[in-house]
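Journal club side-thread
Mid-discussion, someone asked how the predicted structure for our own chain would compare to the paper's figures. Pasting it here so we can look after the session.
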Amino acid sequence: MTGGLANAHSPGDDVRQALGEIARRFGTPAYAFDIRRLKAQVELLRRRLPPQIEILYSLKANASLGICDVFAECDIGADVASAGELATAVAAGFPSERIFVAGPFKLPETIAQLRGIPRAIVSVDSLSELRHLSDEGLSNPAVLRLRPDFGSCAVVPAGSESRFGFTCEQLAHCRTWLPSCQLDVIGFHVFAGSQVLDAEKVNEHLRRALDLSLRAADTLNVSPALINLGGGFGIPYGPNDQALDLAKVGAELTHLVRRAAPARLSLELGRWLVAEAGWYLTSVVGHQERKQRPSVIVDGGVHQRADMCGLCLRRNQHPPLVLGENASEVTPTDVWGALSLPDDVLIEASPLPRLFPGDVLAFATAGAYGLWSSPVLFHGSPLPAEVAFDGSSIHLMRERKPARSILQDQCHIVRQQEVSPA
């Protein structure tokens, strides 16, 4: 097969060659990102969704500066939830009016940055936070996050049992207080969950999010200018997953745009934009056996690709690519990481050829919630390299750190004089 964009887990020869070259030049473990795939995902959204929909890249999925550079160049916005993500979005060049700052409570460092970017939009999670931000004198445009009053069918749900956002009862208490608020409340924000592959269920989330927002507008007697409907678009990780029908979602959004007018609608998408562009590269270092089937040990592990989103990737993902020539018969094989941890398993009973030390395995669909949601300091592990490629062009985003890098920014306590408190 040629042409690497058709299938994220079965790429073309050009992608295989780039992955092999990255492993050779930068070593393993490493993350590799296909720039063409990142851009293709944005273009697919533009073809399938109505042009009035504003797309935000959710940095929580992957806040690598190089990834953000690509999306900023694609002229989409950024959804951030921390001071670090906000600093990254600004450094990547996202326009301030397209930066959407969410999270359950804005900490002092985030507030300090917001003072310098007054056009950034702030999502407010509670009446307590609304009062706090107003007392801090922020004047940014703001939306009120609403807790869904409907159930969520997402793999990672944020429905009526969620901890986030105003309930309908809490929203009513805002009506008399809003006129004195320093922030300019311009709309609403609803997020019902992520990793939804059924287009009908995605549409139900979006439709009910708009219903809730319009009811909130009536409660507060305001005319919203912006409504963020969340997102949650899923991507197929395993052979039993079907890709989301984006055309059906686009048709529903066309109706919702008309209903919401003159308010504009936005979506925050992370996993859908970045997951299928990413590869996790790790090398075989040894052999083991479990349950009478072969197992290999690799130099990576779940400290760099943790399953923190309830996806059970050790059983529900495509077999990794074996880079290089290996034509032996496949057999169910486990791939274990190098951690002293029983659950350090990257994949179980995967059909793989006979593997030898030095073989490089490339795990597909690894661009989201991998390194950026993992316990990377476990065992004092240095960070892996992050590398982007665009055809045959390769760009280093982060160097692979040596073992001693873990000592940086740490201080002895028995080799220094005690520092008295000020």
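Post-session note: The longest strand covers residues 278-290.
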